[in-house]
Amino acid sequence: MNKFLCFLVIFFLFISCSKTSKKGILINEKIDYKSLNSFIKDSLPSFRTFDESYNEIFNLWEETKVIKSSIELISKEARQLSFFLDNLKIEIVKVNDKRIFRPFNIPQVIGRFRVYKTNILKINSNKIDSKNIRLFKNDLKSIVISYNALINTMNKVAKESIENNKETIILDE
Q1: Of 26, 46, 108, 125, which one has the greatest count of Cβ atoms within 10 A?
Q2: What are all long-range contacts of 4-11, with beta carbons under 8 Å and residues at least 24 apart?
Q3: For the chain, the helix, strand and coil percentages under 3-state DSSP, each to the nearest 5
Q4: For residue 87, what pLDDT band results from cuts at 50, 70 and 90?
Q5: Contact 40, 73 (CB under 8 A)
Q6: Above 50 in pLDDT, residue 105?
Q7: Could you tell me if 72 and 104 are in contact, meaning their C-beta atoms sit under 8 angstroms apart?
Q8: Contact 150, 99 (CB under 8 A)
């Protein structure tokens, strides 16, 4: 009977210690939002912008507003980032990449847009924790890189479109 009682006490001590250690693990899993804010402000690549001299071309495709809103990512507080990303996901899903207006309805722009859209949709902003924070940061960086590639391509296409229209006007005269 004494052995059984001793075993029972040791068993309860073991269980209570394991519960305590689990609580300690949960405390360690909290996100360091200051570090995440610092990463967003300092470590993400800079966002490129649409060349304003081609706004008449960009305004032909209304969804450029959704694309432009990505820049707001760097101004968001890390604690609010998941809300912003969720909203961006909702808006980007509405953009139909099969109905892109000319001159952007070309494989280069469509491909870059799809990569950008995929990067936004794959980020798991609802479950940011210490286990996936590195993946989350890499996904944020991928969004910026794909965004910049899209903007560079769109700026180039807009410039070429303007130049081609000028040549057409000159030839028609």
Answers
A1: 125
A2: none
A3: 75, 0, 25
A4: very high
A5: yes
A6: yes
A7: no
A8: no
Distance of CA 163 to the CA centre of its chain: 33
Query: Is the previous residue joined to 107 through a cis bond, with omega within 30 degrees of 0?
Result: no
How is residue 85 written in tokens? 């990303």
CB count within 10 Å of CB 114 equals: 13
The reported pLDDT for the residue numbered 79 is 86
Answer for the pair 104, 67: CB distance below 8 angstroms, yes or no.
no
Inter-helix orientation angle 81-94/107-122, to 10°: 140
Query: Given its phi and psi angles, is residue 100 left (phi above 0), alpha (psi -120 to 50 degrees) or beta?
Result: beta
Return d(Cα 162, Cα 53) in angstroms, integer: 10
pLDDT (tens digit, 9 = 90+) per residue, 3-51?
A: 666 565 566 666 765 544 444 333 335 778 888 888 888 888 999 999 9
